[in-house]
Amino acid sequence: MNQNRVEVYQQNYSQNSTIIIGSGPCGILATKYLKENNNVICIDNREDIGGQWHFDNQNEEDYPNLQQNSFFHHYGVLPSSLYENLQANIPKYLMTFKGFPCKQEYQEFMKAEEFYQYLQDYCAYHNLKQYMVFKTFVSSVKLVKNLSTEEIEKVGFTLNKKFLVEIKDAQNYKENIRFLQADNVIVATGHYSVPNYPKIGDISLFKGEQIHTHYFRQKHLKKFTDKHIVIYGTSMSAHDLICIILKQTELQQQPKKITVIGNQMAIDRLKQSEAYKEEINCQKLCLSSTYIQKIVDEKSLILESGEKIDDVDVLLYATGYQYSFPFLENSNDNLIELVPENERKNSCGPLYKRMFSVKEPDLIFLGLTYNTISIQQMFERQAIIAQRFIDKLITLPSKEDMLRDYQEDFKQSQSKFVDGRDYFKVCYFVGLNEIEYSKQLSELAGMQLDEEFNKYIKDLYVPISINFLQKGNYPWMKQQQVSHLLPKNYSPNEALF
């Protein structure tokens, strides 16, 4: 859409130069805050902004020339896309950026296409797309100081900055290979593209269909008609799919049975659900609080509790994603480490405040936190800190102190899962409290907390979450209204954190 931006960026190397990878919400925010004082380019492999909010009807099942696609070549999958008819899990006032309220006519819990339009409007208002280049894939990020003589000779121009970044055509990983250099690199690629599949004994025996939520599209509903679907996992995507299948799909097109298997706390919440009471009573929705031990034949599995589930037609994984950064993993710089290294990649580090690479703080990650109520504001606060650091308005502690801080944070996150899967979990109810994390970020940024915004979280949304989400009434939560309790055209105060 703006391929000349590469040439403009190269012509301005005399300025402090920052490459932003990804034009989802975090990349958009980073571009907005950094464009004033820096030479900025935001690079995305898609044809437009939005990240996973950019709906793509095609996926690995029907994508033309899949093997040539750069993202697929490096990740083994295509980038994730939210599926049709999805609604946000939090009210619109918690998804707005500073000084830019949502349109009043948008639903309280916005549809995916409404929030996508919000991102488009935000980019247009701040004229951000002039700093972006699309259909371009970032294949490597390397420290110039560690490059070999052969690598330097391939570049073809003088290197005088910290990072060398290789880019290529998004549709063909062999075409249009070029190099850029940067003082700073911001990684805003998210972590919802590489599906996680749990280990299940004798999985090869299962002859039914296996689908991860990564691949789900509305067209899959036809495959579910009159089938027995096992949903493995109780993440928000599992709740979305249960709601779509049982509450938004015509009765004659629904499966004959859904069995949900997951952790005990989430299953116990569903068992008390009033919203699904009818489906539970007639055993159309069955719930098991355990994990799959193994497959016993082509349509049956057994749980760790000993319970056997028979006549399974579809195994639908709602089991989350792994952290993956091939553009960093293919270098010898070792700027990040994936945890665990050789199994499910639940986390990465060492990262100071879940943002800055301790080994090289000019490599900054945005948007890795999850389970936060104030999701977009959390990301905006991270973008503000990145901008203030790059513009030298704030300084970071020594590498030794940052590493010590990270190790303490990571150890605390291991209280529930020793494999680190809770490190990025920032939740109002469990784990690292997001208000506490916001305080940490505000102190780092040297900015005052927005107490009004935090009050709206506590007084307006938390009761909704307790009364509906935590009582298994997910479909009813999406029907709640709170905007009338807020100032008209509310958005967070631009002068506060």
From TrEMBL:
Family membership: Belongs to the FMO family.
Molecular function as annotated in GO: flavin adenine dinucleotide binding; N,N-dimethylaniline monooxygenase activity; NADP binding
Keyword Isomerase: no
Transmembrane segments: none
Database matches in Gene3D superfamilies: FAD/NAD(P)-binding domain
GTP-binding among keywords: no
Record keywords, A-Z: FAD, Flavoprotein, Monooxygenase, NADP, Oxidoreductase
Protein's name according to its UniProt entry: Flavin-binding monooxygenase-like protein
Pfam families, per the entry: FMO-like
